[in-house]
Amino acid sequence: MSEITRETRTVETSNDNTEVRDDSQVPESTVVARIVYIITSIIATLLAFRVLLSLLGANRENAFADLIYTLSYPFAAPFFGLFSYEPQYGQSRFELETIFAIFIYLLVGGLIARLLTIKHKEPV
């Protein structure tokens, strides 16, 4: 059997210098930043599903709705006191505090990822 190895080299030129970057050697901080982005996206997606199900008045006894409510609860719970939240499953409700939670998680996740790659010239 033969093995195929692919190398990618990027040459960037500017007014005063030329930089050669080997794409096979991605800095660890960039990989960690990408993992932070993925985790943040998963949390935001769970919370978005929660908002949608709550807005449509999803039945908590349904397996899918129960799964989404259970998985998203730990991430949404810290924000429940902001707007006098009383959980009422099965009734249509716009969860403003969950929208606020999505915004905060995306902001904090993006900030952490950016801080991890602050010494790099180009964003992740």
Could you outline the blueprint of secondary structure elements for this entry?
Elements: E1 9-13, E2 18-22, H1 28-55, H2 63-76, H3 96-116
Antiparallel strand pairs: 1-2
Helix pairs in contact: 1-2, 1-3
Number of helices: 3
Largest sheet: 2 strands, antiparallel
Strand residues, percent: 5-15%
SS class? mainly alpha
Oligomer class: single chain
Radius of gyration: 21 Å
Number of strands: 2
Low-confidence stretches: none
Could you give the order of strands across the largest sheet?
1-2
> What is the average per-residue confidence, as pLDDT, rounded to a whole number?
80
N-to-C CA distance = 36 Å
Q: H/E element string?
A: EEHHH
Explain how this protein is built.
With about 120 residues, the protein is mainly α. The chain is about 50% helix and about 10% strand. It contains three helices and two strands; from the N terminus they run E-E-H-H-H. The longest helix is centred in the middle third of the chain and has 28 residues, at about 30-55. The model has no long low-confidence stretch (mean pLDDT about 80).
How would you describe this structure in keywords?
124 residues; mainly alpha; two-stranded antiparallel sheet; 3 helices; 2 strands; 51% helix; elongated
Write a concise synopsis of the structure shown:
By secondary structure, this protein is mostly helical.
